[in-house]
Design a protein that fits this description.
Blueprint (H helix, E strand, L loop, with lengths): L7 H13 L2 E8 L2 E8 L3 H4 L19 H11 L8 E4 L6 H8 L3 E6 L2 H13 L5 E5 L11 E7 L8 H11 E12 L5 H8 L3 E10 L6 E10 L2
Parallel strand pairs: 3-4, 3-6, 4-5, 6-7
Antiparallel strand pairs: 1-2, 7-9, 8-9
């Protein structure tokens, strides 16, 4: 991916990011769709000496391409689509599931809590030649009035239990009555069951396991579907 081929606005964002961090583009193929992701190559630049093994909350989760995001992306790429459908990705980070949905023809909004994360997403969308993507800051604790979406996506977004109730509040605001939520998480994530126990009061829940081969060890990802009960 040649950064000079980016549109002017996204090239300016790329140059601003590159002044702060060591970054590189990496290609990622999801089924028939080719994405290009701008990623940090020196994590210490953003960790700033913090040890995420001592304090998990200190880890900037958005910088990692999670296996769950790949599994969710492959699932979205394989859905039979009734286009156009509105898709919202929560805690999008690098934005791979949402960008895959955009490549498949959906109209997509990527959200996260920090403008810099959205800048990475903007560059990734432009590098992947996707124009049907919007970007929005979203604080789950103070969600604005929101439009409603047919599909809501989230990959590895259930890290802290204090955010479970706010997340359910966002889903109430943003999901169409006949819509569906797709979540993907490492099956070992301990926070997954407490969240699903809370969500079960409002949603019909179905789940399936997907295996993803990894260099260090195979990962089992739980793909979860939530549909409103009423």
């Amino acid at each position: 991916m040649d950064p000079q081929t980016l549109p002017d606005r996204e090239r300016a964002l790329y140059n601003a990011i590159k002044e702060r961090y060591t970054v590189a583009f990496e290609p990622l193929r999801i089924k028939e769709y080719q994405l290009h992701l701008l990623r940090l190559t020196d994590l210490e630049q953003i960790l700033d000496g913090r040890n995420p093994l001592q304090d998990v909350s200190a880890f900037p989760f958005w910088i990692k391409l999670w296996e769950a995001a790949i599994v969710l992306s492959e699932f979205i790429a394989g859905l039979p689509q009734e286009r156009p459908a509105g898709v919202l990705e929560l805690g999008a980070g690098l934005g791979v599931p949402g960008l895959t949905a955009a490549a498949a023809g959906y109209t997509v909004t990527l959200t996260d809590y920090e403008e810099m994360i959205l800048d990475f997403e903007r560059v990734n969308a432009a590098a992947s030649k996707l124009t049907n993507v919007r970007f929005a800051l979203l604080d789950w604790l103070k969600p604005p009035e929101m439009e409603r979406y047919d599909i809501i996506l989230g990959a590895e977004i259930l890290f802290r239990e204090e955010f479970f109730a706010p997340l359910l509040g966002v889903l109430r605001k943003a999901l169409n009555p006949g819509g569906v939520v797709y979540l993907a998480h490492d099956i070992k994530r301990r926070s997954l069951k407490p969240f699903l126990d809370m969500a079960e009061q409002e949603y019909r829940i179905a789940a399936s396991q997907r295996k993803l081969k990894s260099l260090d060890q195979d990962k089992t990802i739980l793909l979860t579907r939530l549909q409103p009960r009423h």
